[in-house]
């Protein structure tokens, strides 16, 4: 597993320990407290390091990435993220690994970090919604998904790309984010007020590892409700007034199609923000 020292990575290590599955962690620096059977230190974007990390693996979870386009030059964000995904999946395929999960992002649809205001083409968003990447992070994640598609064909792999939303522990940063967005719902409009608690994010990765279908799949995962104690229809009228609705949204439902996550992976988030109706 790459990115094992991150918040989702540590959560996945906990799940693997729960399931008595041995894990190799690939990290840039060893923090010394990872619940892994083996730790490989190095850059996931290095083919040599990636090959060393996947030795003996049955499956790969690739989480390592620069998580936003805000702190690094655009070419570094795009190049680092895409090279790591290419190197890890190619090394896995060459080593005979036939199951992989990668962390994509809901930012891949393009609105989250765009320099100008963008809106989804329609709502609820689903895997067929046209992407509007306008920043290097969104482009890197869309490219990662295309890389997964290619590697699935090249190596006969099953690859699931999970489009994660804002992820955090309940007491780590999720409640604080919920309070912030409740005070100003406009802060969550670009992300459609979506979230996922860290334990659920890790569980989604574990369930995706069990997905056996050939080829690559892109799957949205999120909590079924939004971060805002305001009916979703009202939020959409206020912040996305000209976007057509393909079906009604009920109550506090997040305006993202989560059906495939449940049908394909058996995933439904269990840890919801306290106080959200």
Stretches where pLDDT falls below 50 for ≥5 residues? none
Percent helix: 25-40%
- Taking all residues together, what is the mean pLDDT? 96
Q: Give the number of DSSP strands.
A: 8
Overall body shape? globular
Strand order of the largest sheet: 3-4-5-8
User: How many helices?
Assistant: 8
**SSE ordering:** HEEHEHEHEEHEHEHH
Structural class assignment:
alpha/beta
Strand percent estimate: 5-15%
Tell me about the biggest sheet? 4 strands, parallel
Radius of gyration from the alpha-carbon trace, in angstroms: 18 Å
How far apart the termini lie comes to: 36 Å
Structural features, described:
The protein is of the alpha/beta class and about 280 residues long. Helix content is about 35%, strand content about 15%. The strands form three sheets. A four-stranded parallel sheet has the order 3-4-5-8, sandwiched between helices. It has a two-stranded parallel ribbon with strand order 1-2. The chain is globular and about 50 Å long.
What is the topological layout?
Layout lengths: L6 H12 L5 E4 L10 E4 L5 H7 L6 E3 L11 H21 L4 E7 L30 H20 L2 E7 L1 E3 L1 H14 L11 E3 H12 L5 E6 L11 H8 L19 H7 L12
Parallel strand pairs: 1-2, 3-4, 4-5, 5-8, 6-7
Explain briefly what this protein structure is.
This protein has helices spanning 7-18, 47-53, 74-94, 136-155, 170-183, 198-209, 232-239, 259-265; strands at residues 24-27, 38-41, 60-62, 99-105, 158-164, 166-168, 195-197, 215-220. The protein is an alpha/beta fold.
């Amino acid at each position: 597993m790459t990115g094992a020292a991150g918040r989702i990575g540590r959560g996945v290590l906990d799940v693997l320990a729960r399931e008595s599955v041995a894990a190799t962690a690939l990290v840039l620096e060893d923090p010394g407290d990872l619940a892994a059977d083996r730790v490989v230190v190095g850059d996931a974007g290095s083919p040599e390091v990636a090959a060393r990390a996947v030795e003996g693996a049955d499956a790969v979870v690739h989480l390592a990435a620069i998580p936003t386009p805000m702190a690094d030059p655009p070419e570094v964000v795009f190049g680092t993220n895409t090279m790591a995904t290419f190197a890890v999946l190619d090394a896995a395929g060459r080593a005979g690994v036939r199951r992989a999960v990668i962390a994509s992002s809901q930012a891949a649809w393009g609105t989250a970090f765009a320099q100008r205001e963008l809106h989804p083409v329609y709502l609820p968003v689903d895997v067929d919604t046209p992407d509007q990447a306008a920043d290097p992070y969104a482009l890197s994640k869309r490219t990662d998904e295309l890389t997964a598609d290619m590697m699935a064909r090249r190596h006969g792999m099953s690859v699931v790309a999970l489009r994660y939303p804002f992820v955090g522990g309940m007491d780590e940063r999720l409640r604080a984010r919920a309070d912030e967005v409740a005070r100003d719902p406009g802060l969550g409009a670009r992300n459609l007020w979506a979230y996922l608690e860290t334990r659920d994010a890790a569980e989604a990765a574990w369930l995706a590892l069990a997905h056996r279908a050939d080829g690559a799949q892109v799957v949205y995962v999120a909590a079924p409700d939004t971060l805002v104690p305001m009916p979703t229809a009202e939020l959409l009228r206020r912040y996305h007034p000209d976007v057509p609705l393909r079906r009604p949204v009920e109550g506090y439902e997040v305006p993202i199609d989560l059906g495939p996550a449940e049908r394909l992976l058996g995933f439904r988030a269990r840890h919801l923000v306290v106080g959200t109706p």
